[in-house]
Specification:
alpha+beta; spermidine biosynthesis; adenosylmethionine decarboxylase activity; schiff base; S-adenosylmethionine decarboxylase; globular; lyase; 8 strands; S-AdoMet_deCOase_pro-enz
């Protein structure tokens, strides 16, 4: 059966206030709020404050991840929200983060991940070879 593995929202935020982008605690709270908005389960949150400026934070979700990388000197933030399954909405996380980071401009791409990948792979007997039971992986037709 062919289905989609998950949804991936890639977000670029421009003209954000530098004081927000350089505030590690604020960025962590934003990820926590984004996880909640998407309906996902935040397992752990890790962050790093760079010198002289900038923050990278990663929220590890039961369903995948949300990350934010900031460049306060240019007002730019790169956001990644990926969730597997159908009960979470990473686009909701991206919408919330656009508002929280007060972006004046944004560019957003949403990908359906794993489209066309047969899931789940049938149970393999321990003595079978992959040639007997696995389906070869090929890039989607759009990639030639």
């Amino acid at each position: 059966m062919n289905q989609t593995t998950g949804k991936h929202c890639i977000l670029e935020l421009f003209e954000c206030p530098s004081e927000l982008l350089d505030d590690e605690q604020f960025i962590c709270r934003a990820i926590n709020s984004a996880a909640e908005a998407s309906g996902s389960t935040l397992l752990t949150l890790s962050s790093h404050k760079f010198s002289p400026q900038g923050v990278t934070a990663l929220g590890l979700l039961a369903e995948s991840h949300i990350s934010i990388h900031t460049w306060p000197e240019t007002g730019y933030a790169a956001v990644d929200a990926f969730t597997c399954g159908t009960h979470c909405d990473p686009v909701a996380a991206c919408r919330l983060l656009t508002g929280l980071l007060e972006a004046k401009r944004q560019a957003r791409t949403v990908l359906q991940r794993g489209r066309g990948v047969p899931l789940p792979v049938a149970n393999m007997a321990s003595n079978s070879s992959c040639e007997d039971t696995c389906i070869p992986m090929r890039p989607p037709a759009a990639y030639g």
